[in-house]
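User: I'm new to structure prediction. If I give you an amino acid sequence, what do you actually give back? Let's try with this one:
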Amino acid sequence: MELRTYIVEDNATIRENLIGALEELASVKALGWAETENQARSWLVQHDSAWDLAIVDLFLKQGSGLGVLEACRGRATAQRVVVLSNYATPDMRKRCTQLGADAVFDKSNEIDALVEYCILHSETPRPSA
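Assistant: Good question. You get back a string of structure tokens that encode the predicted 3D arrangement of the chain. For your 129 residues, that looks like this:
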């Protein structure tokens, strides 16, 4: 099953490379992307049942990934939100988890773990609507 994924990342190079790698390696289907907190919040709320996974960077062109996490608090149980950031310190990991992140990955050395996470969740059956 393809994991319907929304990417919140303001760096175009990172975003394009991430989408390419995840689509090739992890049965991910990128539904779209946002560069700002407001764009991400708006899309995720308007398409509340259309996505399975949101991958969120913390530092955005406008706002913060923390605000995106807050906006996802009311998501369906099967929907996952993960943080992918260069700022995955122990304190930030804890804060992200408190705001509802299912996992936090460091861009510099945990991309393989993100791929594994996506593969695992793409193999989990979606609940019937």
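You can read the tokens as a compact description of the fold. Here is one thing that stands out. The domain at 3-122 is CATH 3.40.50.2300 (Rossmann fold).
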